[in-house]
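Pilot study result, target chain (347 residues):
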Amino acid sequence: MYKILFLLIIVLLFTSCSEKEDVESDGIKISSGGVFILSEGNYSAANSSLSYYYPETGEIENSLFYRVNNVPLGDVAQSMTIHESGVYIVINNSGIVFKINRETLEFEGKISGLVSPREMIFINNHKAYISDLYRTEISIVNPSTFEIIGSIEVGKSSDCMIKSDNKIMIANWSAYNQTKLNNSVMIVNSESDILTDSIVVGIEPNSMVVDKDGFLWVLCSGGFMNDELPSLWKINTVTLEIEKQFTFSNIMQSPDNLCIVGDSLYFLNNGIFVMSVHDQFLPEIPLIIEGNKNYYSLGVDPVNNEIYVSDALDYNQNGMIYRYNLTGDIKSSFEAGIIPGSFGFNY
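Predicted structure:
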C-alpha cells in the first residue's frame, strides 16, 4: 500500500510540474517580424538575458531564455546568430554557445569546450566558425552535432566576422595575448579553412559590413587608450586593396557599431551618425543626438527601415531601447535586460 501511495504521489508531482511548464511555455508567443534583444549582463554575475520585441504592438517579452528553459542564460551573452530554425547565442565568459528553437525558444543543444568565444558565422549547415578573444585560433564547429571539429591558427585574437564569397573577413579587435598590433583584418578561405592573407587597417577594428557592391567597410576606434585617430576603411574584397580611408578628427572619440541598410552606413559616436557609401567625407552632425543617454549598441532593421539603439544606463540596472525611423524620429522606447548588446531581426 505504501508503495502504491508513493507512486501516486510521484505521478501527481510529475503531472503538476508538466502542467506548470506547459502553461508557462504557452504564454510565450514568438512569431516572425520581431526583434531579438540580447543583454550581456555583468561580468561573472551570470545575469545575461534574452528579450523579444514586437514592433507592431509595442509588446516586449523579457527574460525569455530563463522563462522557457528554467535555467539562466549564462555569463556575458556576447552575440547571437539566427540560422534557419535556430538561434545560436554565444556566451563569452561561460565558454559555450547555446542553440534554441527560433519559435519556441526551447534549448536544443550547446557547443562547449570553448575558451572565450565572441561571434559565430555559418559556412554551411554543417560547418561554422567561432572567433575567440583569448586564443589565437578560430574554432571550427559542426552546428548540427554541436562538436568542435577543428581550428584555424590565425596568430591573433579574433572578434567580428563577415563573409564575402569564400572569404571570411575576421577583425583582430583586441591586442590581448599578442605582441603584434591589433590593426588587421584577417582573411580565411572557408573551403580550405586556411588563413590566406591579412589587411592592415586602423587600431582596434570593432565592426564590419559589406555593401551591395561587395566592398568591405571596417570601423576602427583607434584603440582603448586612444593610440591613434579613429578611422573608417573601404576595402575591395576581390583585390583586398584599400579603396578609401576616412580619418576622424578627434582622437578622444571611439566610434563603433557599424551597420548598413541600402547605401547608408550607420554608427555610434556619442550619437547616431549616418553617411552614404558614396560620400567623400565623414558626417559632422549626428542624425540622433545622444544627450544624457549612454548609447551602447546599435541595430538597423533592414526590412522595416528602423533604428534600434540601447542605453546601458549605469551598467547595473536594466537598460533601455530606443526605436527611431530612418529620419531620426522616435517611435517607441522600452526596457530590456542589463547592458543590451545585440539585436537580431527575425525575418
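One observation from the pilot: The mean pLDDT is 93. A full batch analysis is planned for the follow-on phase.
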